[in-house]
Amino acid sequence: MVHRASVLACLICGLSIATFAASLQTGFLNRSINVDGKAYRYVVYVPSNWTTDQKWPVILFLHGAGERGSDGLKQSQVGIGGAVRLHSERYPFVIVMPQCPEGQWWSQPAMQKLALATLETEMQEFNGDTRRVYLTGLSMGGYGTWAIAESNPTKFAAIAPVCGGVSISERLAKLTGLPETHDDNIFSEAAQKVRTIPVWIYHGGADATVPVSESQNMTKALRNLGADVSYTEYPGVGHNSWDNAYGDADFPQWLLGQELKQ
Q1: Residue 4 CA: distances (Å) to CA of 11, 13, 121, 253
Q2: Which of 15, 64, 88, 122 makes the best surface tag, with the fewest CB within 10 Å?
Q3: pTM for the full model?
Q4: Rounded CA separation 257/251 (Å)
């Protein structure tokens, strides 16, 4: 009986250690979520010093059109994921990286729902701080950043759209199937919805994919409202302004300086 009890104790101990070790996994972790009956793969980044002893700041990152798919991985290899791999010490955040399926667009309601459901799941799993939740995205994800912020103006402590926009040009409409924008007031209306959120906008001055005027017009509209907005334009840089933006050590420090007052 003693022998059996010892074995049982060891098994229980082993299971406890395994469970505890699993809960302390860090780095780029693979996850999946079921939304409206469909499974989606994604990645969550967890800092190496993560612990249950504190609440953690959380970034929701939205990738660009080139990273759409169902492998759950591509979106972690471009943009903020690359910056973290180069300088993990700069990013003491839990970073949630959902993946938009082929043919979809982050601004669409169903994809906004997916992104927010993924965020909430990882907020629960990794002890996220509801006062320090941040939203950023590049290109298509920049459009998604504006759209989700417009729909959820009190959720995020700060947002950072990179080479994104709010209006849909004829060219973009043909690429995405989204309706072309003809509303001259779209920038002022979008700015009105997000005016209470601190914003840092990034764009390449030579962007031939998403016109730099998208970010310039949003910056102007926000400044007209007295909003807390910073704008960085990279002269001569094309569509890939995200390496500059996420590689800037000031960016994560700026995020950490923003907090919701609850």
Answers
A1: 10, 14, 40, 55
A2: 15
A3: 0.89
A4: 10
